[in-house]
């Protein structure tokens, strides 16, 4: 299945404001609210819309430090669940299995340097397959988004 212009408009509106009403979406795309709701349900069923969440300001909830952590693992390609274990750490927001010298890139949010030290020592450091880490602390975030660019339609199908 591919995404048509209507799907793209619906997705753009949901990305801009997940609380937008079905009636507002229907009005914008020129469909009946029932048809719009059915489109959204199909986008959810296909896994294109994975969920809805509130975006919080990390600093305002006490998480003043963002860190990117490069992780090397001894368990090689395919690993023995190292990525899954890293994903279980509460402070870790993202786990990416990557190509190159390192095996994983993590994005973590913590309160302060002591909290980061605890994550490295008592969280990541307790996973037996981890051989080393390299941490970069963010000084300022210029741009951060989870929005996906919705390209114009073409002949390529959307997976799912």
- The quaternary organization reads as single chain
**What strand line-up does the widest sheet have?**
2-3-1-4
What integer value in Å does the Rg equal? 20 Å
Amount of beta strand? 15-25%
What is the H/E string? HHHEHEEHE
CATH architecture of the largest domain: 2-Layer Sandwich
Q: Can you walk me through this structure?
A:
With 160 residues, this protein is α+β, with helices and mostly antiparallel strands. The chain has two domains: 5-45, Winged helix-like DNA-binding domain superfamily/Winged helix DNA-binding domain (Arc Repressor Mutant, subunit A, Orthogonal Bundle); 59-137, Alpha-Beta Plaits, CATH 3.30.70.920. Helices cover 31% and strands 19% of the residues. It has five helices and four strands, in the order H-H-H-E-H-E-E-H-E. The protein has a four-stranded antiparallel beta sheet with strand order 2-3-1-4. Strand 2 (92-97) and strand 3 (104-110) form a beta hairpin. Helix 2 (22-29) crosses helix 3.
Question: What would you say about this model in short?
Answer:
With 160 residues, the protein is an alpha+beta fold. The chain has 5 helices and 4 strands; from the N terminus they run H-H-H-E-H-E-E-H-E.
């Amino acid at each position: 299945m591919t995404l048509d212009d209507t799907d793209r408009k619906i997705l753009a509106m949901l990305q801009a404001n997940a609380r937008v009403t079905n009636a507002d979406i229907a009005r914008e795309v020129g469909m009946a609210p029932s048809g719009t709701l059915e489109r959204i349900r199909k986008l959810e069923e296909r896994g294109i819309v994975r969920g809805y969440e509130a975006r919080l300001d990390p600093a305002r909830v006490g998480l003043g430090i963002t860190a990117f952590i490069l992780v090397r693992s001894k368990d090689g390609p395919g690993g023995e669940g190292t990525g899954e274990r890293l994903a279980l750490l509460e402070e870790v927001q993202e786990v990416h299995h990557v190509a190159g010298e390192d095996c994983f890139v993590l994005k973590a949010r913590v309160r302060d340097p002591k909290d980061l030290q605890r994550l490295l020592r008592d969280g990541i450091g307790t996973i037996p397959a981890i051989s080393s880490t390299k941490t970069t602390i963010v000084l300022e975030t210029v741009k951060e988004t989870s929005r996906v660019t919705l390209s114009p339609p073409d002949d390529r199908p959307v997976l799912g």
